[in-house]
């Protein structure tokens, strides 16, 4: 067993990382699906969308072949509506709320319809918004992820000049660096960021990291307000023996490498264990398999009933051939010559519910041993506690504390997204950006 790259041919990589959710092939196909919608009054699909996209309206616009109007409806609520149509867990949001589910019929394919309109708008570079004349106000946004881009777009539409400071070489944040490559391509992420910037009044300065290249106090002096949307990105450690061995990596770094390098350059083991059962764990496991790992085993300390990922995501992992061991918690990683050889797991049973409401896993005293050459840790992400504490923002274990509309403990400084909530969906970050923009507009007395 060995960790190596170039496990597959170029053609195999292209096939394995092709778009997992193909779009409608043409307008006719989109029209057929759009005309299934019954355009509910007080639509539950709209209520279940964190950004409150008027779903019946944009679908009706597609049905009447008003594609440009449909895209405007979507982007008015969610400027990242194109990306969200690819990565949102719609089975527990809009499509999960569709009334067709109550009729035991397939729900409207809302995500594919949303993708149809937004992709066309992005590809055709439709100028759907007009920016108000510059009013002389300047705002700094830290982070070019969904929260930061959403905030910047709302502010710029109101005539505010926005400068975004981004620590990476590309914008998009989680969309670009943290989601499975078969869900959303690098090219689409770049096109989506460029579409947001096409409004005007927004500049992104790349390779600018908070605490290293830029400092909050300096930005406060230079700008009328500051919005922080730095997300989360520190992998939670397991705290078990052997975690330092070669071959033990965290899922965040693993997925980052896949998104920032050519697929052939990313090293993967032959027998891989993935610890965790969240969306990040699924993305890590499926991509390890698609990179050429012969066997991928997911290890989760609870049962399927308690898993944080959706059934749709779990099905992707199963279809990719990933094995799953329920009720197993990592106890020790064993190595030879400094490299991983085995993962020892404690067999668990479920006890009483914990603070999250899920039943707590309890050790049985028995173990399961897996022969592996790579262990991917996907046991959760942590906020940048040291960074946040260093800039004297009120926080709870690194999560920035905010009041309504992103107001923080420092006047003129606002925050939102994963750095506040600890990590939710992309669409939640987009809404947080909108809320922060509303708070900034109020603070600056811009109506």
From TrEMBL:
Pfam entry (one): Fer4_20
Listed name of the protein: FAD-dependent pyridine nucleotide-disulfide oxidoreductase
GO MF annotations in UniProt: iron-sulfur cluster binding; oxidoreductase activity
Gene3D superfamilies, A to Z: Alpha-helical ferredoxin, FAD/NAD(P)-binding domain
Organism expressing this protein natively: Mucilaginibacter paludis DSM 18603
The 4Fe-4S ferredoxin-type domain, residue ranges: 28-61
